[in-house]
Amino acid sequence: RIYVRPVKNETYRPGIENAVYSQLVRMLSSTPGLNPVNNPDDADAEIQGVVVDVKRAVSGEIKASELNPKGVGPNTLLVASEYSASLDCQFVLHLHNKEVWRTEIRRSRPFPANSQIGSLGSTGALINESEFERAVSEVAADMMADVRNSLIQDF
């Protein structure tokens, strides 16, 4: 039985810890032999996660004139065509109040940028933000699979 402590967020991005916590609980719940419990007094072990960093960075560019509608933007201006979402987390497992396992994992995933300009691109920032949140959730899911596999391998 394992108690999953609320994930700490050391970034300036509110709510990112919730995506990591949800994916961690989901992954541990679906693993035979690991039974997440709601009360630390009922647990044999406790796992604590910390979101150390989360970033969005441009990973691809195109000329503004290539955005939809084509030819409207300037040919000399480069704009993002793709971003990369990266997540850096630490996890610690305690067994009987003693640290027995620790890992730091960093993962990233590309996601498309909004490719519209003018009135068609007026919601571009919202679309990019939504895509970023989706990508971070997917990165967190991949990361939690690695955490689970490391736990199973080491124990």
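Second entry:
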Amino acid sequence: VRGGGVGVWLGAGPGAGGLARATNTAMHQSQQQAHLISVVLNAPEAVLRTAPVSGGGMATVVLSRREHMGVFTARRLRALPSAMSYELWLMGPRGDRPAGMITAGMGTMTGPAIVSGMRPGDMIALTIEPASGSPHPTSPPLLLIGPAAGNGSRS
């Protein structure tokens, strides 16, 4: 490089292909998530529900029965010990099903998280679980929210 400039060489070493694939996969997943969020938010029958989370925070869910999906966001969820995490669930007449793990930032927004596979009668629930997740809830729901707004126990 002339003139005292800095030269940069970008080589395609053995790890470059793996990094490119990982970056491409992450970009595709992000685009797919943005598309699904748009589908739910633009569904003509979509409903928006907001409810307080027991223990602190506020959750908002946009639900589309036609798309069988919801978009979950929360703000001001309390920070948890590193061994614990928040887990989303679909709870309804056919049982409880895990719907994804979420990480709460201190005093910030959490999500959006897409909850798919909703069936008639399902509600979205939030519990505190081991950081690795759980196949079944191990703590009472901090939040139950569905087409009929609510926060409390299942009926």
